[in-house]
Specification:
The chain is mainly α and about 300 residues long. The chain folds into two domains: about 130 residues, Cytochrome Bc1 Complex, Chain D, domain 2; about 150 residues, no CATH class. The chain has a three-stranded antiparallel beta sheet. Helix 4 packs across helix 5 and helix 6 packs antiparallel against helix 9. The longest helix has 23 residues. The two termini are about 40 Å apart.
Length: about 300
């Protein structure tokens, strides 16, 4: 399928993998060219894997050297998917300059480069961790970072509406916690558990198996974290549970959507001990729901809306 006589094996060893991994897709055999490849969804735990390398000039330069030597034949100099090898490839190289690349976390891109997926080999024994993270950081320079994130997959109106209900209930819980209203916290927590139970009842077996599995896993995690919120007996345990729930809900929004109108804001705050806690709310001005951290500076992590958009 690939012309190794034209492009040395080493030159293709990273270029071919990157075209397959970064669009969330796996390759196709010649016999299946008429069928779209199934989406490649990284394990959810990698969405929470932090990038240990800051995008310093030195890191970006190192990533650029790796990209220039290994990836340009497929992805092109600007990540537009127009490299000299692109015309003979199916699927075509993804556009690394597409803002929707930001719907995948750094950790997901790290996983895909490291783990591989046929016909892409695993690179965990070929590249060092630092080299993989350097590539991730450099790849990020191709696409403008969106001001609003949409969703990667269209799973239909009913699943989106179910997530929207979870989002609405979560924002009520965050607002009640910000106001220290114990009665509203209890009511919102009960409603949240019911909303998450509704997610688990939705069957996406008619969709691609990868999407259906991701939905089932996401719904299960959200329900489990909602149970932890209901079992929380003090402010600290509630803060930990809400943080874990927010991480999972943010991943669900990136995958499936759930904000049909307006915007939802994901915030973070760092405690005095250096721990980072996150929550979501519907207002653009932070209202921290964590007792003991309300005087700390909060930062916007992400903004979710009906579709990915970039500020002009």
């Amino acid at each position: 399928m690939y012309r190794h006589t034209l492009y040395p094996r080493r030159a293709l060893s990273i270029g071919i993998p990157l075209l397959l991994i970064l669009g969330g897709m796996v390759g196709m055999s010649v016999a299946s060219l008429s069928s779209p490849p199934p989406p490649w969804i990284a394990p959810s735990r990698y969405a929470r894997k932090p990038n240990p390398l800051s995008p310093t000039p030195q890191v970006i330069q190192s990533g650029a050297k790796l990209y220039a030597g290994q990836c340009v034949p497929c992805h092109g100099n600007t990540g537009a998917g127009d490299g000299i090898a692109a015309g003979s490839l199916n699927p075509k190289p993804v556009k690394l300059s597409d803002p929707n690349m930001w719907l995948q976390y750094d950790g997901e891109l790290y996983y895909k480069i490291s783990a591989g997926n046929t016909p892409m080999p695993s690179f965990k024994t070929v590249l060092s961790d630092d080299q993989i993270w350097q590539l991730v950081n450099y790849i990020r320079t191709f696409a403008p970072k969106p001001t609003v994130l949409g969703a990667r997959f269209d799973v239909g109106a009913a699943p989106r509406a179910a997530i929207a209900k979870v989002v609405a209930t979560t924002t009520k819980l965050s607002a009640a916690a910000a106001d220290s209203n114990t009665e509203q916290i209890a009511a919102a927590t009960r409603d949240l558990l019911q909303a998450c139970e509704s997610l688990r009842a939705i069957d996406l077996s008619g969709h691609d198996k990868s999407i259906a599995f991701a939905w089932k896993s996401t719904a299960s995690h959200l329900f489990s974290y909602a149970e932890n919120l209901g079992a929380a007996s003090d402010d600290q345990s509630r803060a930990i549970a809400l943080n874990k729930f927010t991480e999972s809900l943010a991943s669900a929004l990136r995958l499936f959507g759930g904000v049909e109108t307006g915007r939802v804001y994901q915030f973070s705050v760092t405690s005095n001990t250096g721990d980072v806690y996150m929550w979501i709310q519907s207002e653009p001005t932070a209202r921290c729901p964590f007792p003991g951290m309300k005087s700390q500076k909060s930062s916007v992590v992400a903004v979710f809306g009906p579709q990915t958009s970039v500020e002009k």
